[in-house]
Amino acid sequence: MFDDFLIRAALAGIGVALAAGPLGSFVVWRRMAYFGDATSHAAILGVALALALDLPVGLGTLAVALAMAVTVATLAARGWAMDTTLGVLAHAALAVGLVAVSFVPGARGDLSTWLFGDILAVSKADLAFIWGGAALVLGLILWRWSALLTATLNEDLAAASGLNPDRERLILTLALALTVAVALKVVGALLIAAMLIIPAATARGLARSPETMAVLAALVGAAAVLGGLGLSLGADTPAGPSIVAVAALAFALSVSLGALRRGG
Q: Which of 6, 36, 38, 181 could form a disulfide with 193 if both were Cys (CB 3.0 to 4.6 A apart)?
Protein backbone atom coordinates (compact mmCIF):
# COMPACT_ATOMS: atom_id res chain seq x y z
CA MET A 1 0.00 0.00 0.00
CA PHE A 2 1.09 3.58 -0.61
CA ASP A 3 2.43 5.63 2.28
CA ASP A 4 0.23 8.41 3.64
CA PHE A 5 2.61 11.15 2.50
CA LEU A 6 2.44 9.87 -1.09
CA ILE A 7 -1.35 9.77 -1.04
CA ARG A 8 -1.43 13.34 0.30
CA ALA A 9 1.04 14.40 -2.41
CA ALA A 10 -1.10 12.85 -5.14
CA LEU A 11 -4.29 14.44 -3.79
CA ALA A 12 -2.58 17.82 -3.52
CA GLY A 13 -1.27 17.65 -7.06
CA ILE A 14 -4.63 16.57 -8.46
CA GLY A 15 -6.32 19.45 -6.62
CA VAL A 16 -3.93 21.92 -8.23
CA ALA A 17 -4.41 20.30 -11.65
CA LEU A 18 -8.20 20.57 -11.41
CA ALA A 19 -7.93 24.32 -10.85
CA ALA A 20 -4.97 24.99 -13.16
CA GLY A 21 -6.40 23.11 -16.17
CA PRO A 22 -9.52 25.22 -16.89
CA LEU A 23 -7.81 28.42 -15.73
CA GLY A 24 -4.76 27.64 -17.84
CA SER A 25 -7.04 27.32 -20.87
CA PHE A 26 -8.02 30.97 -20.45
CA VAL A 27 -4.38 31.89 -19.90
CA VAL A 28 -3.53 30.25 -23.24
CA TRP A 29 -6.51 31.74 -25.09
CA ARG A 30 -5.75 35.23 -23.79
CA ARG A 31 -1.98 34.87 -24.20
CA MET A 32 -1.46 35.65 -20.51
CA ALA A 33 1.54 33.38 -19.93
CA TYR A 34 3.76 36.20 -18.74
CA PHE A 35 0.92 37.37 -16.50
CA GLY A 36 1.07 34.02 -14.74
CA ASP A 37 4.82 34.37 -14.30
CA ALA A 38 4.48 37.80 -12.71
CA THR A 39 1.83 36.62 -10.26
CA SER A 40 3.70 33.44 -9.30
CA HIS A 41 7.01 35.26 -8.82
CA ALA A 42 5.29 37.71 -6.49
CA ALA A 43 4.37 34.76 -4.29
CA ILE A 44 7.93 34.66 -2.93
CA LEU A 45 7.45 38.12 -1.48
CA GLY A 46 4.26 36.84 0.14
CA VAL A 47 6.23 33.99 1.70
CA ALA A 48 8.73 36.46 3.16
CA LEU A 49 6.01 38.68 4.60
CA ALA A 50 4.13 35.73 6.09
CA LEU A 51 7.27 34.34 7.76
CA ALA A 52 8.31 37.76 9.05
CA LEU A 53 4.85 38.45 10.53
CA ASP A 54 4.34 34.87 11.75
CA LEU A 55 1.27 34.41 9.55
CA PRO A 56 0.17 31.36 7.54
CA VAL A 57 2.26 31.21 4.36
CA GLY A 58 -0.83 30.60 2.25
CA LEU A 59 -2.42 33.80 3.53
CA GLY A 60 0.66 35.91 2.81
CA THR A 61 1.08 34.37 -0.62
CA LEU A 62 -2.57 34.95 -1.50
CA ALA A 63 -2.46 38.59 -0.36
CA VAL A 64 0.63 39.48 -2.41
CA ALA A 65 -0.50 37.46 -5.44
CA LEU A 66 -3.85 39.26 -5.36
CA ALA A 67 -2.10 42.63 -5.11
CA MET A 68 0.11 41.77 -8.08
CA ALA A 69 -2.80 40.43 -10.13
CA VAL A 70 -4.96 43.50 -9.49
CA THR A 71 -2.03 45.82 -10.27
CA VAL A 72 -1.37 44.10 -13.58
CA ALA A 73 -5.06 44.03 -14.50
CA THR A 74 -5.35 47.74 -13.73
CA LEU A 75 -2.33 48.58 -15.87
CA ALA A 76 -3.68 46.42 -18.70
CA ALA A 77 -7.03 48.24 -18.59
CA ARG A 78 -5.17 51.57 -18.87
CA GLY A 79 -3.36 50.47 -22.01
CA TRP A 80 0.16 49.92 -20.67
CA ALA A 81 2.54 47.91 -22.83
CA MET A 82 2.08 44.54 -21.16
CA ASP A 83 5.21 42.73 -22.33
CA THR A 84 7.55 45.33 -20.84
CA THR A 85 5.42 45.96 -17.74
CA LEU A 86 5.06 42.26 -16.95
CA GLY A 87 8.78 41.69 -17.55
CA VAL A 88 9.67 44.39 -15.05
CA LEU A 89 7.09 43.32 -12.46
CA ALA A 90 7.85 39.59 -12.70
CA HIS A 91 11.58 39.87 -12.20
CA ALA A 92 11.37 42.72 -9.71
CA ALA A 93 8.87 40.81 -7.57
CA LEU A 94 11.05 37.70 -7.58
CA ALA A 95 14.21 39.65 -6.74
CA VAL A 96 12.57 41.66 -3.96
CA GLY A 97 11.01 38.49 -2.57
CA LEU A 98 14.32 36.62 -2.51
CA VAL A 99 16.03 39.57 -0.80
CA ALA A 100 13.21 39.82 1.74
CA VAL A 101 13.38 36.09 2.50
CA SER A 102 17.11 36.41 3.23
CA PHE A 103 16.28 38.74 6.13
CA VAL A 104 13.91 36.24 7.77
CA PRO A 105 15.78 34.07 10.31
CA GLY A 106 15.88 30.41 9.29
CA ALA A 107 14.11 30.95 5.99
CA ARG A 108 17.12 30.62 3.69
CA GLY A 109 17.30 26.87 4.16
CA ASP A 110 13.69 26.50 2.97
CA LEU A 111 14.14 28.71 -0.08
CA SER A 112 14.25 25.85 -2.59
CA THR A 113 10.94 24.61 -1.18
CA TRP A 114 9.20 27.83 -2.17
CA LEU A 115 10.98 28.07 -5.52
CA PHE A 116 10.48 24.47 -6.68
CA GLY A 117 7.81 23.12 -4.34
CA ASP A 118 7.82 20.28 -1.82
CA ILE A 119 4.76 18.24 -2.66
CA LEU A 120 5.97 15.26 -0.63
CA ALA A 121 5.79 17.36 2.55
CA VAL A 122 2.13 18.36 2.10
CA SER A 123 0.21 18.10 5.38
CA LYS A 124 -3.49 17.54 5.96
CA ALA A 125 -3.89 21.27 6.62
CA ASP A 126 -2.12 22.05 3.33
CA LEU A 127 -4.42 19.58 1.60
CA ALA A 128 -7.50 21.32 2.97
CA PHE A 129 -6.16 24.70 1.82
CA ILE A 130 -5.33 23.39 -1.66
CA TRP A 131 -8.68 21.71 -2.24
CA GLY A 132 -10.60 24.61 -0.73
CA GLY A 133 -8.79 27.05 -3.03
CA ALA A 134 -9.23 24.76 -6.04
CA ALA A 135 -12.97 24.51 -5.33
CA LEU A 136 -13.23 28.31 -5.22
CA VAL A 137 -11.35 28.65 -8.53
CA LEU A 138 -13.53 26.04 -10.22
CA GLY A 139 -16.65 27.66 -8.78
CA LEU A 140 -15.63 31.06 -10.15
CA ILE A 141 -14.90 29.64 -13.59
CA LEU A 142 -18.11 27.62 -13.79
CA TRP A 143 -20.17 30.56 -12.54
CA ARG A 144 -18.75 32.95 -15.15
CA TRP A 145 -17.91 30.44 -17.90
CA SER A 146 -20.10 31.90 -20.67
CA ALA A 147 -19.18 35.48 -19.81
CA LEU A 148 -15.47 34.70 -19.54
CA LEU A 149 -15.52 32.85 -22.85
CA THR A 150 -17.38 35.65 -24.63
CA ALA A 151 -15.00 38.30 -23.26
CA THR A 152 -12.05 36.16 -24.29
CA LEU A 153 -13.29 35.69 -27.86
CA ASN A 154 -14.26 39.31 -28.46
CA GLU A 155 -14.41 42.11 -25.89
CA ASP A 156 -16.53 44.30 -28.18
CA LEU A 157 -19.06 41.49 -28.54
CA ALA A 158 -19.04 41.01 -24.77
CA ALA A 159 -19.72 44.72 -24.20
CA ALA A 160 -22.52 44.67 -26.77
CA SER A 161 -24.04 41.71 -24.90
CA GLY A 162 -24.15 43.72 -21.68
CA LEU A 163 -21.02 42.21 -20.16
CA ASN A 164 -18.15 44.14 -18.62
CA PRO A 165 -14.85 42.84 -20.09
CA ASP A 166 -12.84 44.52 -17.32
CA ARG A 167 -14.88 42.68 -14.70
CA GLU A 168 -14.32 39.35 -16.42
CA ARG A 169 -10.59 40.08 -16.64
CA LEU A 170 -10.58 40.87 -12.92
CA ILE A 171 -12.33 37.57 -12.14
CA LEU A 172 -9.62 35.74 -14.07
CA THR A 173 -6.87 37.59 -12.22
CA LEU A 174 -8.44 36.74 -8.85
CA ALA A 175 -8.69 33.07 -9.85
CA LEU A 176 -5.08 33.16 -11.01
CA ALA A 177 -3.89 34.64 -7.72
CA LEU A 178 -5.78 31.99 -5.76
CA THR A 179 -4.31 29.21 -7.93
CA VAL A 180 -0.81 30.55 -7.37
CA ALA A 181 -1.39 30.50 -3.62
CA VAL A 182 -2.60 26.89 -3.56
CA ALA A 183 0.03 25.63 -6.01
CA LEU A 184 3.07 27.15 -4.29
CA LYS A 185 3.63 24.19 -1.96
CA VAL A 186 3.18 21.70 -4.81
CA VAL A 187 5.42 22.96 -7.62
CA GLY A 188 6.94 26.19 -6.30
CA ALA A 189 6.93 29.76 -7.59
CA LEU A 190 9.17 29.06 -10.58
CA LEU A 191 7.05 26.20 -11.94
CA ILE A 192 3.47 27.35 -11.31
CA ALA A 193 3.17 29.01 -14.71
CA ALA A 194 4.28 25.76 -16.33
CA MET A 195 1.39 23.87 -14.73
CA LEU A 196 -1.01 26.53 -15.99
CA ILE A 197 0.28 26.61 -19.55
CA ILE A 198 1.64 23.18 -20.51
CA PRO A 199 -1.47 21.02 -19.79
CA ALA A 200 -3.69 23.61 -21.48
CA ALA A 201 -1.37 23.81 -24.50
CA THR A 202 -1.38 20.01 -24.67
CA ALA A 203 -5.17 19.85 -24.55
CA ARG A 204 -5.49 22.56 -27.20
CA GLY A 205 -4.14 20.27 -29.88
CA LEU A 206 -6.56 17.48 -28.94
CA ALA A 207 -9.81 19.27 -28.14
CA ARG A 208 -12.57 20.38 -30.51
CA SER A 209 -14.41 22.73 -28.14
CA PRO A 210 -13.49 25.10 -25.28
CA GLU A 211 -15.25 22.89 -22.74
CA THR A 212 -13.39 19.81 -23.91
CA MET A 213 -10.09 21.66 -23.77
CA ALA A 214 -10.69 22.76 -20.18
CA VAL A 215 -11.55 19.21 -19.08
CA LEU A 216 -8.63 17.67 -20.99
CA ALA A 217 -6.22 20.23 -19.52
CA ALA A 218 -7.27 19.20 -16.00
CA LEU A 219 -6.88 15.51 -16.88
CA VAL A 220 -3.45 16.07 -18.47
CA GLY A 221 -2.35 17.99 -15.39
CA ALA A 222 -3.57 15.24 -13.06
CA ALA A 223 -1.81 12.59 -15.17
CA ALA A 224 1.38 14.66 -15.09
CA VAL A 225 1.16 14.82 -11.30
CA LEU A 226 0.83 11.05 -10.95
CA GLY A 227 3.52 10.40 -13.57
CA GLY A 228 5.87 12.94 -12.01
CA LEU A 229 5.43 11.46 -8.55
CA GLY A 230 6.14 8.00 -9.99
CA LEU A 231 9.29 9.32 -11.67
CA SER A 232 10.38 11.04 -8.47
CA LEU A 233 9.82 7.91 -6.42
CA GLY A 234 11.54 5.60 -8.88
CA ALA A 235 14.47 7.77 -9.98
CA ASP A 236 14.91 9.92 -6.85
CA THR A 237 14.35 13.15 -8.78
CA PRO A 238 12.81 16.40 -7.42
CA ALA A 239 9.04 15.97 -7.36
CA GLY A 240 7.97 19.41 -8.61
CA PRO A 241 10.30 19.54 -11.64
CA SER A 242 9.47 15.88 -12.39
CA ILE A 243 5.77 16.75 -12.62
CA VAL A 244 6.49 19.59 -15.05
CA ALA A 245 8.84 17.36 -17.07
CA VAL A 246 6.11 14.74 -17.50
CA ALA A 247 3.67 17.47 -18.54
CA ALA A 248 6.21 18.71 -21.09
CA LEU A 249 6.55 15.16 -22.44
CA ALA A 250 2.77 14.97 -22.83
CA PHE A 251 2.88 18.23 -24.77
CA ALA A 252 5.60 16.91 -27.07
CA LEU A 253 3.56 13.77 -27.71
CA SER A 254 0.45 15.81 -28.51
CA VAL A 255 2.41 17.96 -30.96
CA SER A 256 3.78 14.84 -32.65
CA LEU A 257 0.31 13.32 -32.83
CA GLY A 258 -1.05 16.51 -34.35
CA ALA A 259 1.72 16.51 -36.96
CA LEU A 260 0.96 12.89 -37.86
CA ARG A 261 -2.74 13.69 -38.26
CA ARG A 262 -2.01 16.61 -40.55
CA GLY A 263 0.46 14.52 -42.52
CA GLY A 264 -2.10 11.77 -42.92
A: 36
Q: Which amino acid is at 171?
A: I
Q: For residue 234, is it within any domain?
A: no
Domain, as residue range, for 11: 4-190
Q: How far apart, in whole angstroms, are the C-alpha atoms of residue 142 and residue 140? A: 6
Residue type, 125: A
| Chain mean position to CA 31 | 14
**168, part of any domain:** yes
Q: What is the pTM of this model?
A: 0.88
